[in-house]
Specification:
432 residues, alpha/beta, Lyase, Ornithine Decarboxylase, Chain A, domain 1, TIM Barrel, 2 domains, eight-stranded parallel beta barrel, 21 strands, 25% strand, globular, binds pyridoxal-5'-phosphate
Length: 432
């Protein structure tokens, strides 16, 4: 049993990803190595896209939250799937531009966009700038005025929905740095102001209630709250909001304890709520956007490492040291995230030992996990950590001046590098 459907074991007892022998990949490209299965990425894109076609008459757009995993080739894959991009910085916007992305299909987020970022977005005709606060609305209006264009925006709203997830990634509630609160009237005041701004077109409203969510109910509740707000705007300001962006946050399987909902089911259920609320509230059905990130990239990725030392501390624990760690996967040190790992060159054997997998950085907290089940492990073995496609490469750092690993895509039994391994020259490239 593996956490991702594309993983298997071949006749040599080696772990395969998308049909490719991971031990061979480690040999060919070196470790640490990110491996992503392009077919699985595309499959997840298609299930979100098809769910909008099937349950909401195609009146919507999937925007991949590129912060989960962003590089030019990923943007190209999204484009070829007919999917837009959600970006949160000029760096992600620039990557999208280099990949030739359609800027009409971009949502530009962020709670503190700089003037440089807003100008870049306006110059490149970003389809939707998600405005986070009044200060930003005013700055954007004057930037658009100077350039003599109208900026299309959505407002980030805090719908006050508790998504039952880790506190650090819960963002729908009032005590969040993101967006406008509904309860206090702040959101309504912002809408009033936007409607009167000369160079702003309010296209819609946005909410994102958190991440790694397994229930559908909080999404349904958020949609209900947002539609009630749209009805209030229509009634009191005589202004019809065209679009509703319901964000991302769909949970994935990191360990066997996680039980994700099939991705189609979200739109199936949420569409029902949207349609019935619109009827009840006498408003038109909005164009819907959703922004999956983790659920598109996460399950498609694994990270391969080579084991250095194995340290048995009698009656305490066994440390298995690998050639990567928090530099390529900071999620344990950030959130104590759980992962499953296996010895790729012995993947068919039972995982009957418990170990702590330790990274190579000078931090005691630099771990991939504690109490992890693993096959018998020796120096030189290849370890695969599963479901690392999201928030790993994108969160990687050069702590201890360790070069970042490359990313290899697997497609139809073939592998290719999409991000090269960082070199030592690049580590010192900006040093004077
Ligand atoms: C992070 C984020 C997402 C994606 O969240 P996932 O949990 O990766 O699906 C979508 N929209 C916004 C605004 C976000 O901040």
């Amino acid at each position: 049993m593996f956490v991702s459907e594309n993983l298997s074991v071949n006749e040599k007892g080696h772990l395969t990803a998308g049909g490719v022998d991971t031990v061979e990949l480690a040999k060919q490209y070196g470790t640490p190595l990110y491996v992503m299965d392009e077919n699985l990425i595309r499959k997840h894109c298609a299930s979100f896209k098809n769910s909008i076609d099937k349950y909401y008459d195609g009146k919507g757009l999937v925007c991949y939250a590129s912060k989960a995993f962003c590089c030019k080739e990923m943007c190209r894959v999204m484009m070829s799937e007919g999917i837009g991009l959600d970006v949160v910085s000029i760096g992600e916007l620039y990557t999208a531009k280099c990949a030739g992305a359609d800027f009409e299909k971009i949502c530009f987020h962020g709670n503190n966009k700089t003037d440089e970022e807003l100008e870049f977005a306006v110059e490149n005709n970003v389809g939707r700038i998600i405005v986070d606060n009044i200060f930003e609305l005013e700055r954007l209006n004057s930037i658009a005025e100077k350039k003599n264009v109208t900026a299309n925006i959505m407002f980030r709203i805090k719908p006050g929905v508790d998504a039952h997830t880790h506190n650090f990634i819960r963002t729908g509630q009032i005590d969040s740095k993101f967006g406008f609160a509904l309860e206090t009237g702040e959101a309504f005041e912002a809408v009033k102001e936007a409607v009167s701004c000369s160079h702003i077109h309010l296209k819609g409203l946005h909410c994102h209630i958190g991440s790694q969510i397994f229930d559908i109910a909080p999404f349904e509740e958020a949609a209900r709250v947002m539609l009630e707000f749209i009805a209030k705007i229509k009634k009191e300001l005589d202004f019809e909001v065209d679009e509703l962006n319901l964000g991302g946050g769909f949970g994935i399987m990191y360990t066997e304890d996680n039980d994700p909902v099939p991705y189609e089911n979200y739109m199936e259920k949420v569409s029902e709520v949207v349609k019935s609320c619109c009827n009840q509230l006498n408003i038109k059905q909005p164009f819907i956007l959703i922004e999956p990130g983790r659920s598109i990239a996460g399950p498609a990725g694994i990270t391969l490492y080579t084991v250095g030392g194995v340290k048995h501390i009698p009656d305490i624990r066994t440390y298995v040291s690998i050639d990567g760690g928090m530099i390529d996967n900071p999620r344990y040190i950030l959130y104590q995230s759980e992962y499953e790992a296996l010895v790729a060159n012995r993947a068919g054997e039972p995982r009957d030992t418990k170990v702590t997998i330790a990274g190579k950085c000078c931090e005691s907290g630099d771990l991939i996990g504690e109490g992890m089940k693993l096959q018998k492990v020796e120096p030189g073995d290849v370890i695969a950590v599963c479901a690392t496609g999201a928030y790993n490469y994108s969160m990687a750092s050069n702590y201890n001046r360790i070069p970042r690993p490359p990313v290899v895509f697997i497609k139809d039994g073939q592998s290719r590098v999409v991000v090269k391994r960082e070199t030592l020259e690049e580590i010192v490239a900006n040093d004077i």
